[in-house]
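Schema walk-through. Below, the input block comes first and the output block second. Nothing else is stored per chain. Lengths vary across the set, and this one has 187 residues.
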Amino acid sequence: MTVKSDRWIRKQSLENQMISPFVEAQKSDGIVSYGLSSYGYDARVAPEFKIFTNVDSAIVDPKNFTINSFVERNSDVCIIPPNSFALGRTVEYFKIPRDTLVLCLGKSTYARCGIIVNVTPLEPEWEGHVTLEFSNTTPLPAKIYANEGVCQFLFFQSDEECETSYKDRAGKYMQQTGVTLPRINTK
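--- output ---
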């Protein structure tokens, strides 16, 4: 499995809509950079956020998650309370090839401010807007800028296709749009 270059990412995005909208070159003038890089793609966060709140003294339970644990904001900035977190989503919509696995890392600009970006791997043939989790590890409020870069996706292509893809399994987060909260299959 090898990491894929800017040439491969560009080709997959222009010919197969792997990333849409696709920005062919890094944009960085006065903003946190985004767009195609040498061996990855720096994605943006949309101006749609769910900020964790504990007003109701709720318990965070992934099997019984309540929307009441979040305050929704549509804004150009998101202020994350100290030692808390927020959810967002990418501006970009991803369609992952069957022979590819994608990993995400936070941008150093945010990491150096104590803001951690967490995303699980994008599996073969998964598609949708990526839900992003931002952890504010500091004792101070932290700011996230919408429509600017927040994380980098790295693409790894296997030497063979998987037997069963995310699409084949009818994964519960397939074709998600918007900020998507935890789900549990009830089959």
